[in-house]
Amino acid sequence: MALGIFLSELFMAVICFFGLSNFFTIPEFQIAFALVAATAITYLGVRSFHKKYHHFIRSMEQPPSKSKSFFKGFLLNIINPFVLSVWIPILIGISGLYDKNDPNYQNFIFVNLISILFTLFLLDLGKVYLSDFFGRKLSRRVYYYVNRYFGLILLIIGIFFFYHFLTLIIPYLKSGH
Q1: H/E stretch holding 68
Q2: Model-level pTM?
Q3: What is the DSSP letter of 65?
């Protein structure tokens, strides 16, 4: 999962690095992205919150596949709109540190990005280790309720994204598009 998150972070950083971040300011893209993110996050929240205890226990007994965990980490991080809102300011901040006329300007920015990404990857691996460490110490019942709690949080975030979607689409439709 950490590798999937890392690769999605790398993907977003590369998109910003090559100047495609302007694409994300197009109203049609923002509306579609808000709807997709709201739907996906709400679905995950409802699914986690309403999962019955015996289904939860059964799913814990089956080890998750590595490819499924990888894609889950990648896709969850890609639909997170905050990832892009983090990388744009990072690139703006890094690019202000160097002279744009320097022939190595892009190399300096690239090295900074790789350093940040590597640090994030190490932090993600640390989170995976800590979650595994604490997860072994929790009873299945506590783990079930923690999962439900996070499902409720995801559900609230999904509702917020639906609200954001409505705040984007209503003015867009009123403007005659």
Answers
A1: helix 66-78
A2: 0.64
A3: P
Read out DSSP for 23-59? GGGSHHHHHHHHHHHHHHHHHHHHHHHS--HHHHHHH
Please, what sign has the CA dihedral across residues 151, 155, 160, 165? positive
User: What pLDDT digit, counting tens, does each position of 44-98 carry?
Assistant: 888 888 777 666 667 666 777 788 888 888 888 887 777 877 787 777 777 777 8
CA–CA distances in Å: residue 120 to residues 2, 71, 114: 10, 18, 10
Question: Of 140, 165, 117, whose CA–CA distance to 8 is shortest?
Answer: 117
User: Domain locations in the chain?
Assistant: 2-18+31-174
- As given in the structure block, the two tokens for residue 159 are 């509702």
The whole-angstrom separation of Cα 3 and Cα 117 is: 11
Instruction: Write out the H or E segment, with its range, that includes residue 98.
Output: none
pLDDT digits (tens, 9 = 90+) for 119-164: 888 888 888 888 888 878 877 788 778 878 888 998 998 898 899 8
The count of other CB atoms within 10 Å of the CB of residue 54 is 8
* The one-letter amino acid at 63: P
Distance CA 91, CA 88 (A): 5
